[in-house]
Design a protein that fits this description.
This protein is an alpha/beta fold. It is 34% helix and 13% strand. The strands form 5 sheets. Strands 1, 4, 5, 6, 7, 8, 11, 12 and 15 form a 9-stranded mixed β-sheet that branches. Strands 2-3 form a two-stranded antiparallel ribbon. Strands 9-10 form a two-stranded antiparallel sheet. Helix 1 crosses helix 2 and helix 8 packs antiparallel against helix 9. The radius of gyration is 29 Å and the shape is globular.
């Protein structure tokens, strides 16, 4: 900066000795600069018309700009306090994903029956595992268990040539949209602990799920729909229960909304007979006034309850059309498998997930599997019977979801994640089944900026252990956050004297697929 800017002068006096011609001339030569200015009529006229820069005016203009920036930040902070679900910008610009749909295959789908072909496993069928593969701890498999080959057949699909089993004839057609991760692992081999770790990064309850963290970081794009929804399987609850989806120690406004299966995901969505919209608005206004009476500060639970009443009213007035899929074309309903016995339930929930994404819902979980073990992907007794049945429920709806998102231009900004809490053992349990297995299994991602048609990592030749680029759940979490534009360290919340985050141990982004 020219030294003339620093010369002393009285208030209101010009900053002496500085102009564009002399300043640039000192750097580039007066002759060259004069020629440049004189040869440019517009620039020369502008310079001749310019007045000497007043210091007071310069400082005023500069600090007005600073003040505007500060005011905008203060207003944004006040809005966040007034509405903790207000949409917020991500930590990093140009984040590819705005929303997440997690297709949760509860119970633990087998990697060697789905996305990780192992020819050697079939050759060793009925034999003891060779010692060269190392040891593995299971929950039920006996020490003398024999390896179990698979009856599934794998083939290469798409331009990428990724191998997918015949369990997924529909999904295999979308393989060029998928990034298959064949080297996942986690810390626990029991359902509840592994489910907690999958959702919250911890192996015990009480910590926020990744859905709650996503909404905490980004807020909601809709003021008339829940920001985070879970569509559970109607067959029953899972081992970890609702706490695995919960907000933990985050404020209660970040808890999920549990939707029902079937044709009425939300009860009492329409106004009662004889009640007008104006009357319902008066009721909500009265409840809000009563909740705020006699107190100047609202606790977390009361704030969440007030927000729930407000959201329920907005849903009654604006959301019925979102939850009513009868307006979809017959081609779309058929694409998902709505109305077909094997697929109707999961098809409805996948279709609803697409409609929710269209309307600004940030995070959706669509669960496959519930109730007793064999009603999940938990194939202890007969892997063939279990996985054939479970795959028939989800294959067509999941493929349709990807197709539908893509043709509507939504797949670019909607991140779809598929997986369970662990995989299945290469050894047989009860001769035909497979036990829980946490040392190596498969997941996949699609959309939301993910590089489709890719495969990352590998397990050993029998699918026992992740040996090439092992990726922990924390790496899955970090990649999901990264696609949403969130940094794992910046996304934190003070709890019991420390800033907690989704990843207990620092995770890494899976660079090969982003």
């Amino acid at each position: 900066m020219p030294t003339a800017w620093h010369s002393a002068g009285t208030a209101g006096q010009p900053l002496h000795g500085w102009n564009l011609r002399t300043s640039l001339g000192s750097r580039f030569g007066p002759g060259k600069i004069s020629g440049m200015i004189d040869s440019s009529p517009n620039l020369s006229a502008d310079l001749q018309a310019a007045r000497p820069l007043q210091r007071r005016r310069f400082l005023s203009d500069a600090f007005c700009g600073f003040g505007t920036t500060a005011l905008a930040a203060m207003l944004a902070q006040e809005e966040a306090v007034a509405n903790p679900l207000a949409a917020r910008p991500p930590h990093q610009q140009h984040a590819p994903a705005k929303s997440v749909i997690f297709l949760f295959m509860a119970g633990g789908p087998s990697q060697v029956e789905t996305f990780d072909p192992k020819p050697l496993l079939n050759k060793l069928n009925g034999q003891r595992r060779p010692a060269s593969f190392g040891d593995a701890k299971y929950q039920f498999v006996k020490s003398d268990a024999k390896l179990l080959g698979t009856k599934r057949r794998f083939a290469k699909y798409g331009e990428s040539g990724i191998e997918v089993s015949d369990l997924f004839p529909h999904l295999s057609r979308r393989v060029d949209d998928l990034a298959v991760i064949r080297s996942c692992y986690c810390d626990k081999v029991v359902h509840s602990a592994a489910q907690y770790e999958l959702f919250s990064g911890r192996t015990f309850p009480g910590f926020p799920s990744m859905g709650s963290w996503a909404v905490f970081g980004l807020g909601s794009e809709s003021d008339s729909l829940p920001s985070y929804v879970v569509m559970a399987d109607p067959k029953g609850a899972l081992e970890a229960g609702q706490p695995m989806y919960a907000n933990g120690f985050l404020p209660s406004v970040y808890q999920p909304t549990m939707l029902r299966a079937g044709e009425t995901p939300v009860r009492n969505l329409s106004l009662p007979k004889g009640v007008t919209l104006s009357q319902r608005q008066q009721t909500v206004d009265l409840i809000r006034k009563l909740n705020g009476a006699g107190t100047t500060t609202l606790d977390d639970e009361l704030t969440a309850r007030i927000n729930t009443y407000d959201l329920a009213f907005k849903m009654q007035t604006r959301a019925p059309a979102v939850f009513d899929i009868s307006g979809e074309t017959k081609d779309t309903l058929d694409l998902y498998g709505v109305g077909q016995e094997e697929t109707d339930d999961y098809a409805r929930r996948c279709l609803l997930a697409r409609r929710l994404v269209e309307n600004g819902v940030r995070f959706s979980v669509v669960v496959s599997g519930g109730g007793p073990g064999n009603m999940q992907w938990d194939a202890h007794g007969d892997i063939e019977e279990n996985h054939l049945r479970m795959a028939k429920h989800v294959d067509q709806p999941i493929a349709a979801l990807l197709t539908d998102l893509k043709r509507r231009g939504l797949l670019d900004s909607a991140l779809v994640v598929w997986g369970g809490e662990f995989g299945r053992s290469p050894e047989a349990q009860s001769s035909l089944g497979r036990d829980h297995h946490n040392l190596g299994f498969s997941m996949w991602m699609a959309g939301g900026g993910i590089r489709g048609g890719t495969v990352v990592g590998a397990t050993d030749e029998i699918g026992l252990r992740a040996v090439e680029k092992p990726l922990h759940f924390r790496d899955i979490h970090t990649t999901i956050l990264h696609q949403l534009g969130l940094q794992q360290d910046e996304l934190s919340f003070p709890h019991l004297g420390r800033n907690e985050r989704l990843t207990l141990v620092h995770g890494k982004v899976i660079d090969e697929i982003v």
